[in-house]
Recover the amino acids of this structure.
């Protein structure tokens, strides 16, 4: 009788062990997949930028400075090696693109050019996808971190060496505290 | 564990089986008279077991068939019922819709493929459908697509995507399709046959099925709309955009009469405005499918520490505002005969055939006179004209000048324009898009609005006389560029009296120079003809 009970407990523990291990692995794979998704969107952005620069170059004769910044930021982002360097270069690229879009607002001729509008829409969409992919990645990382740290899952994660993944941090200017205007004028 | 949008379990499938039991129950009741007849006619009164079993089996088979037929291919049925079409890749606004769908797809973790569809209607609504085959469609009306900004559209699509991911969409779709699909089809038939006083049997059948589908509302909880709102905010992190979108929906036509009443539980807001929807309490919770819009907006706004008055004020202003003419600079230009012409707006300047980079222009008396190329905005315009994009010549030729038409982009969609007379040819599919996108900015040039006013007033007179004297109003003048049948000439509508030529075979519509712009100006500013006292009929 006691033998049966011990056997039953052993089977239960084994089943819990297998289930927890499998779900930890699938959570980790989800995280890695989300990281790949960010890469896909970064690649897409790099591919779209030369087309946009080509399309607006003629009209933005007096804004060569802004354009060059975009081109050089893109070149840096493409060639960046380490993850940290990559994140920094991509943040630079985001900023310079934002400036280019702001400049483009002032040129009605660009706003009526279908090709430019289409490229602009594609890039805007890519920026959104990028931020969504980041958001998803961070959510998944948070989920994964919780999983490997809570008891009793941490026994298995410690045993099989599940490493905590890093968050994808936002651009520096996003992190800066918002400036609060206390004057009563609206 | 809280319901995360990343991995949502299939936890509601048991509710679908309740729907099936409900259906079975209805069939049992419906087939009960049959049972009575059966017993009375064929069997001795003592043995009542076989007919009971037969009754049960028959109901089970009928309910099973009904359930299978309505739940299996529902997405296609609903899509067909609403005449929805896949987005047009050439259309700028439709492309934005597709892009946003992709973005939402990413934020939901690529768990499920969702197709986008566009419903060609001016009404403002969006709906999600899913069926047992695993198809899922998010459909948006043309009107809503054109009225929302990008963040607002994103919020609405995220809301619908949550319905699909959390599987409550499957549940509502099946509930709607059990009776809603056929009742909506019959409703449409009833409208089409135009019988108002004498109700056809079809109509009555449709109405009774509709009552049954109202009963099904009991299974559809109001909570799911709140949950989808919350999930949408979680995805887009933008409660204000969703609140603005809902606020716009609350003030607009949401498709009552167009979207069949059977489909109402699929939509983001109920197409019918009912008192039940806007009330709280037990009965409303049981019988209504949508929670009060005001409450939904309030919850969203409180997340952002705003209140509804901030949304009301600008909306009121646009609803009662005056025509705003944009303060664009006016230019005078010197023509080849050395005479000053003008004033022209930038777009009118672009239409001058004699304008060159060397033309002298000025912004007014006493202002600096310089070459056109020295003025940045004018130079950019000339630059675009000469370096311009490749012109794609369409297969159609102009009905007035017989020259090939050129494909142009207008309000984000493709039209065919004549380079010589500036007339515009529009497809029947694309005209509603242009009209739907008209309301976005309330501005049109002074010239267009004054011309439109005088034309509709003239036409109003002529129209009224023609009506009274029973004169035949239509004269065939031009031929359709596609099928070469004569086009019929008529007014765009009884309210907006702009003359258009349209082909009843191909659905093409021809607008002479400025006519499309005038029509848009009229619709945008709700200009109607002045009321005039009619003289005696000649």
């Amino acid at each position: 009788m006691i033998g049966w009970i011990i056997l039953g407990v052993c089977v239960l523990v084994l089943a819990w062990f297998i289930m927890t291990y499998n779900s930890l692995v699938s959570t980790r794979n989800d995280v890695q997949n989300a990281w790949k998704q960010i890469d896909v969107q970064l690649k897409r952005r790099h591919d779209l930028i030369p087309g946009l620069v080509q399309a607006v170059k003629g009209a933005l004769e007096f804004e060569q400075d802004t354009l060059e910044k975009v081109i050089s930021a893109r070149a840096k982002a493409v060639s960046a090696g380490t993850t940290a360097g990559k994140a920094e270069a991509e943040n630079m690229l985001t900023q310079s693109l934002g400036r280019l879009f702001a400049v483009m607002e002032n040129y009605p001729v660009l706003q009526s050019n279908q090709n430019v509008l289409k490229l602009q829409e594609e890039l805007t969409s890519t920026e959104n996808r990028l931020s969504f992919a980041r958001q998803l990645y961070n959510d998944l990382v948070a989920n994964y971190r919780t999983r490997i740290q809570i008891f009793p899952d941490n026994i298995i994660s410690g045993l099989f060496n599940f490493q905590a993944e890093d968050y994808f941090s936002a651009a520096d200017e996003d992190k800066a505290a918002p400036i609060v205007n206390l004057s009563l004028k609206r | 564990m809280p319901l995360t949008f990343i991995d949502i379990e299939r936890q509601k499938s048991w509710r679908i089986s309740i729907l099936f039991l409900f259906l079975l129950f209805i069939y049992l009741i419906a087939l009960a008279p049959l049972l009575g007849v059966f017993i009375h006619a064929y069997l001795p009164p003592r043995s009542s077991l076989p007919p009971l079993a037969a009754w049960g089996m028959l109901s089970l088979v009928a309910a099973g068939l009904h359930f299978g037929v309505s739940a299996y291919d529902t997405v296609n049925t609903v899509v067909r019922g609403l005449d929805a079409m896949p987005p047009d890749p050439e259309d700028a606004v439709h492309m934005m819709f597709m892009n946003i769908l992709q973005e939402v797809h990413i934020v939901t973790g690529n768990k499920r493929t969702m197709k986008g569809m566009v419903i060609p209607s001016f009404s403002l609504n969006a709906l999600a459908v899913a069926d047992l085959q695993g198809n899922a469609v998010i459909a948006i009306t043309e009107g809503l697509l054109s009225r929302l900004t990008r963040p607002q559209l994103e919020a609405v699509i995220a809301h619908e995507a949550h319905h699909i991911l959390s599987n409550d969409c499957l549940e509502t779709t099946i509930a709607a399709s059990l009776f809603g699909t056929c009742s909506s089809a019959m409703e449409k038939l009833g409208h089409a046959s135009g019988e108002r006083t004498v109700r056809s049997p079809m109509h009555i059948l449709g109405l009774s099925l509709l009552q049954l589908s109202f009963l099904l509302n009991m299974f559809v909880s109001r909570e799911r709309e709140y949950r989808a709102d919350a999930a949408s905010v979680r995805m887009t992190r933008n409660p204000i955009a969703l609140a603005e979108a809902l606020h716009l929906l609350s003030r607009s036509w949401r498709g009552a009469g167009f979207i069949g009443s059977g489909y109402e539980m699929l939509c983001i807001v109920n197409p019918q405005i009912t008192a039940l929807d806007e009330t709280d309490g037990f009965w409303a919770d049981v019988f209504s499918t949508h929670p009060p819009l005001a409450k939904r907006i309030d919850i969203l706004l409180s997340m952002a520490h705003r209140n509804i008055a901030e949304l009301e004020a600008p909306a009121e202003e646009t609803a009662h505002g005056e025509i705003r003419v944009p303060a664009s600079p006016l230019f005078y230009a010197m023509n080849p005969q050395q005479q000053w012409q003008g004033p022209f707006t930038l777009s009118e300047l672009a239409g001058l055939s004699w304008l060159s980079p060397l033309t002298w222009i000025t912004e007014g008396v006493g202002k600096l006179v310089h070459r056109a190329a020295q003025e940045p905005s004018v130079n950019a315009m000339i630059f675009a004209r000469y370096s311009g994009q490749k012109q794609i010549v369409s297969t159609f030729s102009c009905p007035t000048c017989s020259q090939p038409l050129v494909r142009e982009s207008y309000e984000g969609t493709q039209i065919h324009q004549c380079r010589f007379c500036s007339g515009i040819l529009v497809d029947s599919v694309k005209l509603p898009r242009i009209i739907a996108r008209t309301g976005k900015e309330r501005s049109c040039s002074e010239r267009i609005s004054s011309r439109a006013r005088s034309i509709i007033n003239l036409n109003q007179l002529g129209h009224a006389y023609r009506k009274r004297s029973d004169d035949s109003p239509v004269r065939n003048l031009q031929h359709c560029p596609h099928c070469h049948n004569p086009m019929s000439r008529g007014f765009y509508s009884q309210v907006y009296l702009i003359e258009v030529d349209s082909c009843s075979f191909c659905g093409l519509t021809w607008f002479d120079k400025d006519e499309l712009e005038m029509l848009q100006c009229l619709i945008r500013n709700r200009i109607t003809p002045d009321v005039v006292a009619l003289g005696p009929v000649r």
Q: What stands out?
A: Chain B touches chain A at residues 4, 6, 92, 95-96, 99-100, 102-104, 106-107, 109-110, 150, 154, 235, 237, 346, 377, 380-381, 383-384, 387, 389, 409 (CB under 8 Å).
